[in-house]
């Protein structure tokens, strides 16, 4: 295992037990969210990063942190629960920002201290209760008028049969080893609104995490070639990736990347 791979979360776990996103990271993938870098960039463009004080929940390997920093924020703080990921994202951010190791539901940051809170591919893996706690925490640390920007795994259509939802969640837990609970756009919107936020913008993108074209767009040609080389070398990893890809294909019409931006209204009104 290379030094980079040893620094990753779950590096010492057997391939069969590693959560899907860390398995993909082990194979060289750096963009670990359903709508890819394209949807991330749209999200950041609409959020308005330049000159703003940013908190990113769950920066993971720090890939979005790099995108944020390239847009000239006034400040950057990452809040990452996993010790190894916190160290890796802190290394990616360097001296221009800070990463604290903490739970996104209890960041320890002061009330009304951020202009923008961003979180990608981290609410989906939480129970309904924890989802609500994290969104409430984001709302607490936002200044009035501040914006919460999320990019998560969505379900389509909005009136998807509950039995299909349940079956899909079970399949995801079995194959990616994460209790992923994706939601329809109406459900994501309601989650933010229940915390008193006002949704201003939504967008979707195909869930193409393991498709070749998306990987070339997200990881570049060299990065994609490295991932393919690593997949070919490791049979256990290859079997898992093929199972994940088959599941994503099977549910391709149902799964998608969703992005939403909501603002915290000023006291006494929904306006900014
Ligand atoms: C799928 S990865 C996504 C990483 C990154 N946001 C990205 O899109 O590439 C999920 C990340 O969420 C982090 N995470 C999960 N639950 C968390 C929590 N309650 N508080 C902070 N980080 C959390 C994990 O450690 C991991 O880094």
Salient structural properties:
Rossmann fold; alpha/beta; 8 strands; single chain; binds S-adenosylmethionine; 272 residues; globular; 43% helix; 8-stranded mixed sheet
Short description:
The protein is 43% helix and 21% strand.
Q: What average pLDDT do the residues reach?
A: 94
Shape: globular
Instruction: Give me the Rg, rounded.
Output: 18 Å
Instruction: Please indicate the percent range of residues in DSSP E strands (runs of 2 or more).
Output: 15-25%
**Total number of helices:** 10
Give the strand tally.
Answer: 8
Enumerate the distinct ligands: S-adenosylmethionine
**How many structural domains in the coordinates?**
1
* Structural class based on helices, strands and sheet pairing: alpha/beta
Stretches with pLDDT under 50, minimum 5 residues: none
Structural account:
There is one protein chain. By secondary structure, the protein is α/β, with parallel strands linked by helices. It has one domain: Vaccinia Virus protein VP39 (Rossmann fold), CATH 3.40.50.150. Helices cover 43% and strands 21% of the residues. It has 10 helices and 8 strands. The chain has helices at 3-6, 20-26, 36-47, 63-69, 83-93, 128-141, 162-176, 185-194, 212-233, 235-250; strands spanning 53-57, 75-80, 98-101, 114-120, 142-155, 183-184, 198-206, 255-263. Strands 1, 2, 3, 4, 5, 6, 7 and 8 form an 8-stranded mixed sheet that branches. Helix 7 (162-176) runs antiparallel to helix 10. The longest helix is centred in the C-terminal third of the chain and has 22 residues, at 212-233. The mean pLDDT is 94. Residues 21, 32-33, 57-60, 63-64, 79-82, 85, 103-105, 120-122, 125 line the site of S-adenosylmethionine.
